[in-house]
Amino acid sequence: MIDEFILDKIILYNLTLDQALILYCKCTGTKSLTHYRPAAEEYDQLILNKFLTASRNITREGTQLCKEIFFTEKNNDNIDTEFENWWDNFPANDAHGNYGARRLIRTGSKAKAKALYMNAVNKKAVTSEFLLLALQKEVDFRKKNSVKENQLSYLQSPVTWLTNETYLLSSSISENNTTFSEYGKEFI
User: Fold this and answer.
1) Which residues are CB-contacts of 184 (< 8 A; sequence separation ≥ 6)?
2) What is the crossing angle of helices 76-89 and 128-144, to 10°?
3) What is the pLDDT along the chain (188 residues), one digit of tens a residue?
4) How many CB atoms are closer than 10 A to CB 120?
């Protein structure tokens, strides 16, 4: 899955995905090109634009472009704001509906959660919107399925939720899913 931030930069520089892959592999020394062979025209275009030499080695301009596309982090001010929004949406405790608070959920280090959040957004190619939506889906799902017992009690802490990449599981919860998976109970 390619992050929209990176994809926008690839489009901005008029590169194809194959050209971006070639630059990335050449810049990082990744051997992926031994398994996938882009068309010769892709290399020719990179040579024409002076991102590769005639012998298909990466040039200084190619390295600079690769760094700009793949290794420039997103605007941290924006990520800070998005993290604060996500943190504020994470339930502080398991109180909802007729259930009173019995367990604190938003526990652990906020700084560690922020570092994990930024790592997920910058390195794991997920967006802040994706993380917020996954959290909202899981919370809504747990509240909706609290029939005999408070299922929100089994929501992982923010640090554990990010460390275990529970957002990938939460994002797959569908509206029609009527069975409840009790993942997370073992982390309490």
Assistant:
1) 154, 155, 156, 166
2) 0
3) 566 778 878 888 889 999 998 998 888 877 766 678 889 999 999 999 999 999 999 999 998 888 888 776 655 568 889 999 999 999 999 999 889 999 999 988 898 999 889 888 877 667 888 899 999 999 999 999 998 899 999 999 999 999 988 888 865 665 544 444 444 444 44
4) 20
Reading the block at residue 100, the tokens are 């009173």
Does residue 125 come out as left (phi exceeding 0), alpha (psi in the -120 to 50 range) or beta?
Answer: left
Site of tokens 């019995």: 102
Residue 71: both structure tokens together:
């290794």
Tokens of residue 51, six digits: 């991102």
The 3-state secondary structure of the chain reads CCCHHHHHHHHHCCCCHHHHHHHHHHHHCCCHHHCCCCCHHHHHHHHHCCCECCCCCECHHHHHHHHHHHCCCCCHHHHHHHHHHHHHHCCCECCECCECCCCECCCCCHHHHHHHHHHHHHHCCCCHHHHHHHHHHHHHHHHHCCCCCCHHHHCCCHHHHHHCCHHHHHCCCCCCCCCCCCCCHHHC
